[in-house]
Amino acid sequence: MQIIIIGNNIIDNTAALMSANILAATADSSVEIHLLNDGLLNDEKAQHKGGLARSNIPPLNLTTDIATVAPSFAACLRLLKVSEAQFMHECDAQFHLGNHFVSWGEERQNFHHVFSDYGVKFATVEFLPAYLRLLSEQQTSNTLDSYSLAAQMAQRGVFSHPSDDPKSIRSSLNYSWRFSIAKFNALLTAKLDQHKITQHSHAIEQKLRNDSGDITQIQLQNKQIIDCDLVIDCQGKEAPPTQAAEPTLHYVSGIKPLNQHSSVNLYTGTQHGFSVQCLNNTHEQFTQYYWSTSGWPTSYWKTSDSQTGLGDNIKQSFTQEHPSYTAQSQGQIELDLAPPQWQNQQLDLSPLNRKSLSIHSSHLDLLWYTLSTLCNITRHNMRSTLAAKAFNRELTQVTTGFNELNRLTLFPLISGMKNKQTKEDETFLSKEGRERLELFQHCGRVLQEEGDQFPPSYYATLLYGLGITPNTIDPLAYQQDQESLAKTAAQLLRLIDNACKNMPKLS
Amino acid sequence: MSEATPPISRIVIAGGGTAGWMCAAALARVCDKQTTQITLIESENIGSIGVGEATLPVLRDFNRMLGIDEQEFMKATNATFKLGIEFKNWARQGQSYFHPFSGFGLSQNLTPFHLQWLQAHHYTKNAQSKDITLPNFDEFAIVTHAARNNKFAAPGAGNQIDYTYAYHLDATAYAQYLRRYSEALGVVREEGKITHVALDSQCGNITALSLDNGKQVSGDLFIDCSGFRALLIGKVLDTAYIDWRHWLPCDRAVALQTERPPNQPLHSYTTSTAHRAGWQWHIPLQHRTGNGHVYCSKYVSDDEALSVLQSNSGKAINEPKVLHFGAGMRQQCWKRNCISIGLSSGFLEPLESTSIYLIQFGIFKLIELFPRKHNFEIEAKQYNRLMREEYESIRDFLIMHYALNQHKDLPFWADTANMPLPVSLQERLALFKSSGYLPKKRGSFGEASWLAVLYGQHCWPQFKQQGLALLEDDKLLADLQAQHQHMQKSTYTMPAHSSIFPQKPHS
């Protein structure tokens, strides 16, 4: 059983390094994994195939190479047998408790959006409806953030791990990390030998196929031939050789075909945009998203996180597709994250790194999800076309779910909030997204849907943070009398305060 | 937030029985007593079907939500513990398999247990020595061993392997128990038959129900628990019924209560035995046994069905009762201000004990989407979608039991094995056979339940040895045998189920 992973610039290619190591960590010793370094991408090669040469990309003010991930990434580290201590030490990692949205939308909302639960659950009701009731009855003037342990921890610069004791308020805590992607790549590179992954430095000369179109062998420029059962392409869209050799591969949108209605006009009207601030070497535990109305590109490019897809990726795509762009023209940026395709035994992981707009997840989260799904699906039979179909369907569902969440977050960009739904909004949100928004606007509820990677409370607090106030309060929030509800809320504030006081300072 | 929309203050439940009183109890528990009045209308002259004497583990969540003490509940309903279902003669005559309320074995190196078992099975089948054997798939659940030895212990008491349990109960006694519970919380019971339903001439909402004693009960929200009669949702609101009889052709059942057999072990599981044109249930309670024969009237007469039931049951303590039904569900379970719960919303044969579960699911979703008075449309849309998904998911699971049978010589079974399947099920089975992968599916039955039936009825993935993970055969076999032994041993100290519920006379 042989798996070939093709990448270029291997030492910088997180997709290739993660693929190799994760497959090796889960596969039996009878599975051979080959990592092919198809060479450094050079301008000539890229331009020849219609790609964007690196030297043509205007210099960006990139301050960091930081990756942020969702809490589910912990399973990836466990599989790789990397302890948190080792990871934090070797990858310059910091704790990451959520996102901080600053001056978001026309309403200029400021709010933290955390991975953990807000408050406590009141019988059958989540905290948010109970909080809304207290607010409407003037029993509290505190912000929702005050009832979030994670938000309070971040504001006070303290941190402590979640507690196993279900009675402790710290048991509701959830967190992830922000870390140096270059150092993470170095850690993964060091693991290649440990996992007995065979590395090849010669470029690919040709791919040999059987009658059904499956790639069965790859011949390298040194004439070496490697048999393969599965090929994983991690070269990225800017790697034209693979694109040219694989015309059947194409990008698909989780929602609609690219370049059609899925494109979003980011720059109409007030030329809204937003930038991402990832501060390295600080004790900030949130990734900050700054909304900007000063037009692009100055603020847009102010800082960038290569992993969140908001910097070079979008600019690259944009300048590539709209070379005559001026501040006055209305360019279109593709926001959809293209799920990978698995066709003819070839799995293309490269789109994950392209044209993705990631606020609530990074391409690493999706990469981890992709690889763990791949491992699950191919454990028994790598050559099942039905498995490939199922794989594509599941990934489409998950990427659509992430996209939908991102689109909801960007909703104020389009609608200017306040429930003004225009024709443009209808193309921005999918039917499911619109229904989710409609239900929340109507009664403040969010239902768990297939493809959701976060619990309903994550969506509800985001929508509330974005300034969407439900028309009615959940009737079940009234099952407790006002006095005891207010008492519980006050007690919660004290608990949070005490918990924070007992935590060590990050500094 | 608009407070101009008044809350629901009058809830009217049409019909008692299990559905009606479960609904009343749950709503009384979560609604504010001061502001919400709940009225239940039932007539002593209309008997209740007393659906579903066997339940699923989630009923424990329902009881927990009500704050019910388990011992008190079991005493009041003559309940026994249920660890799963034994299917006799379903795949082939003379063969049995167990569907436990637990998972199977331990996954290793991220390889699901069932694929390890499959590899070991392949190895033992081709082994030279007859001494190399592998226990059946269903024996890799501690629950199977406990059930087959008529034992029971609550999970967590020193057992390393997780499992759960449900109950066998007297549904009529459960309804009576919940009636007392509900009335204590202020639910008003009105005795009488519904003779007229008043509708709002403008919006078509139900406004009041007239009773044969001259009373009129007005309400804001009406819950139809009138059983198969579907008095409100069907007869008055004229909601169409989606017919699934072409997939689930059994259309009748004859039920018979028998004495608890003296000096015999008390089963801690439900038994389902396939007959010539249907199947028979056997549900042991503390004081009696529930028996029933579900059959297809096209292939077997009522007399023959009764005779088969009588010859396979103990000493009868009541007259047999014949029920007529058709598998399917309402096009809309929530229409205008009326929600149908229980048999008025749909029917799926009790092969996997889903009748009470579907009532509970409907109640939980109603609570999750509890409306305000002014507009039900948005909640109804979501509720109907969720109910449809749940019904369809269970429907597919039930159809699979028939579709995988191998009784080629019996017309009913041959026809059900050859019937065209719903596309959703067709695709799921094809994927599993090809790759051994079962995509996650929302609904009451998780992967382990599907595997229990698939492996139990000999629908296994093709063994191609082309997977990512193949373990060393002899080591794998040794490991599985050790697991099996551990599971067997774990049940040694469990008490006999009959020692928990000693024989008592029928009342």
Can you describe this structure?
The complex is a heterodimer of chains A (507) and B (507). With 507 residues, chain A is α/β, with parallel strands linked by helices. In chain A, 35% of the residues lie in helices and 16% in strands. Chain A contains 15 helices and 18 strands. Chain A has a six-stranded mixed beta sheet. A four-stranded mixed beta sheet of chain A has the order 6-5-15-14. In chain A, strand 14 and strand 15 form a beta hairpin. The radius of gyration of chain A is 24 Å and the shape is elongated. The relative contact order of chain A is 0.17. Chain B has helices spanning 17-30, 59-66, 70-77, 113-126, 142-148, 171-184, 231-236, 302-311, 355-368, 377-403, 411-418, 423-435, 447-456, 473-490, 497-500, and strands at 10-14, 37-42, 80-82, 84-88, 96-100, 166-168, 188-191, 194-199, 206-211, 216-218, 221-224, 241-243, 252-259, 270-275, 278-284, 288-295, 321-324, 328-330, 334-335, 338-340, 346-347. In chain B, strand 8 and strand 9 (206-211) form a beta hairpin. The radius of gyration of chain B is 24 Å and the shape is globular. The mean pLDDT of chain B is 92. At the A-B interface, helix 10, helix 11 and helix 13 of A face helix 10 and helix 12 of B.
Strand arrangement within the widest β-sheet of chain A reads 8-2-1-12-18-17
Q: Largest sheet of chain A, described in full?
A: 6 strands, mixed
Count of distinct strands of chain B: 21
Kindly provide the radius of gyration of chain A, computed on alpha-carbon positions and rounded to a whole number of angstroms: 24 Å
